[in-house]
Specification:
heterodimer; A: 69 residues; mainly alpha; 2 helices; flat; B: 485 residues; alpha/beta; Amidase signature (AS) enzymes; 11-stranded mixed beta sheet; two-stranded antiparallel ribbon; 13 strands; globular
């Protein structure tokens, strides 16, 4: 991905999230995006995850207990 | 010492010592609390420990503790002991800010969750709400109306984050212990940089309800104090199921203090050096680490070299899930009040927009696979020794300039949040600049007793955790926001 394409992708993602960083802040996010994306791709290359369940559990009978004591 | 008075130099350093003095009549809780608040009058304006002081409430609690002692009522190790609470946990006696202009002050108003209530029932004296990085992420922003937490070993250096006030308050002797939270290292990094002990329990061991969330699947509430023994005593109080937190584990709580013993015969400690000593490591770090391991061997432990499985991938998974969960919590406010957030908070949280929902789930699958591999490793070792960070406390300017990806290359705490295992940071010496360095010990899920035992055994033959930074404080004159940015 070229630097222009990277910037376009990051602008789109940030804009879609309704975030409004300054120019410097957007630049920081553009700069870190390639390593961030490469890190994500590494996660998909771990073959053992192919049939692994995620470490997130949905509880069908939640307690809804108040936390105030 | 007269029980009604307290000379500053005779004050106890540890909760364990304070508990003994309170029971012998050598010291009263009122005298101890008065002395620590007086110390805070002088030191807090320099190091920014407190967001809110609760002096009147603390004195009421101290009087109650003394009254109970006189009536023969003993609620345990923390009765009458001054402690602080990180300002992202609600305490009914005062406001909760999360060090932020954003958090609606009605959240947590006159409410508090199980951790704070358990500490109160144990007789602890809560002296105030302690500084955190905004919403437990990022770094202090000098443009916002909150104190900049400074490191009492060198006030031109960072106290770390996010539980900065708990760590620097203990190191400077303003409180004897406190509550921190740890989502990617926020107990252990400030513990390391301030030369105190910090325990991130197993995920689910301590209920996190009543705490402003950063990342729901990664947040841990834990204990900070000078010693592992003091951390064990506090964990004994706050651990245990509560129905208001679905991730809270409904399983028995060990007797943590009673399980401590200095002999490590039969304990096998795995050692991972492979991922933890980057080129920019502190020059004194490896020597201190090896010396710490040698001491553990002298106490009967056996060492076994290993490599943590999927280290890079698991820490990546942590950051993807942390930033996504944080963005979900903050997006509405970020989109309308961008400038009211601290600069590094909004940059860090915004990174959640750079991953997809599928990436989030894949990260959760990686965490599960890493847990499985780690479980296999823990069949042959009892505890794993690493370091929480390769660098000592950075200057405030360096810390402020840090962006998350580069920073994480010198920080080795997040892996243990992603897998959920109990992990403690323990002082293990000082570098040539006189700054603390730290050892990190991790155990099997819900085996806090194992990491506390090894940490306590180490502290039974070392005094790094008892060193005080008073000389550095005495050389302090004035500091201002210009020192930060």
């Amino acid at each position: 991905m070229s630097s222009d394409e990277t910037e376009a992708v990051v602008r789109m993602l940030i804009s879609s999230a309704r975030l409004t960083p300054s120019g410097d802040e957007l630049r920081a996010l553009v700069d870190l995006y390639p390593s961030h994306k490469e890190g994500i791709e590494r996660l998909y290359r771990i073959t053992e995850t192919r049939y692994a369940d995620p470490a997130v559990v949905f509880v069908a009978a939640p307690t809804f207990a108040d936390w105030n004591e | 010492m007269d029980g009604s008075k307290s000379s500053d130099s005779n004050l106890p350093l540890t909760v364990n010592d304070a508990a003994a003095m309170l029971r012998s009549g050598e010291l009263t809780s009122v005298a101890l609390t008065t002395a620590l608040l007086a110390r805070a009058d002088v030191i807090d304006p320099i190091i920014g420990t407190y967001v809110t002081r609760l002096d009147d409430y603390a004195m009421e609690r101290a009087e109650l503790a003394d009254h109970d002692f006189r009536r023969g009522i003993d609620r345990g190790m923390y009765q009458g002991v001054p402690i602080g609470i990180k300002d992202i946990l609600a305490v009914a006696a005062g406001p909760t800010t999360a060090n932020s202009l954003i958090l609606n002050r009605s959240w947590g108003h006159e409410r508090q969750g199980p951790v704070v209530s358990r500490l109160e029932r144990a007789g602890a004296v809560i002296t105030g709400k302690l500084t955190t990085s905004e919403f437990a992420i990022g770094y202090p922003d000098p443009g916002k109306p909150f104190a900049i937490p400074r490191n009492p070993w060198d006030v031109e250096r960072s106290a770390g984050g996010s539980s900065a006030g708990t760590a620097n308050g203990i190191a400077a002797g303003l409180v004897l212990a406190g509550i921190g939270t740890d989502t990617g290292g926020s107990i252990r990094l400030p513990a390391a940089w301030n030369g105190v002990t910090g325990l991130k329990p197993t995920f689910g061991r301590v209920p996190k309800s009543g705490c402003v969330p950063l990342a729901y699947t990664l947040d841990h509430v834990g204990t900070m104090a000078r010693s592992a023994r003091d951390c064990a005593g506090m964990l004994q109080i706050i651990a245990g199921y509560h129905p208001s937190d679905e991730s809270s584990a409904d399983r028995p709580v060990d007797r943590y203090v009673e399980a401590l013993r200095p002999d490590l015969t039969g304990v096998t400690i795995g050692v991972d050096r492979s991922n933890h000593f980057p080129p920019n490591s502190d020059p004194n770090l490896a020597e201190c680490f090896e010396a710490a391991l040698a001491l553990l061997v002298s106490q009967g432990a056996k060492l076994s070299d290993l490599t943590l499985p999927l280290y890079e991938e698991t820490t990546t998974a942590l950051w993807i899930m942390l930033s996504a969960e944080a963005l979900a919590y903050h997006r509405a406010d970020l989109s309308t009040r961008w400038g009211d957030y601290h600069e590094l908070t909004r940059i860090n949280v915004s990174q959640g927009a750079l991953s997809s929902a599928a990436d989030y789930v894949q990260a959760a699958r990686v965490r599960r696979v890493a847990q499985h591999h780690l479980g296999e490793l823990f069949k042959s070792v009892d505890v794993i020794a690493t370091i929480p960070t390769a660098v000592a406390a950075r200057t405030l300017k360096e810390a402020y300039m840090v962006r998350t990806p580069s920073f994480t290359r010198a920080i080795f705490t997040g892996y243990w949040n992603a897998v959920g295992n109990p992990t403690i940071a323990v002082p293990m010496g000082f570098n040539s600049d006189g700054l603390p360095l730290s050892l990190q010990l991790s155990g099997r899920p819900f085996e806090e007793s194992s990491v506390l035992r090894v940490a306590d055994a180490y502290q039974s033959v070392t005094d790094w955790h008892l060193r005080t930074c008073a000389p550095a404080m005495q050389h302090t004159t004035t500091v201002g926001a210009d020192d930060v940015k």
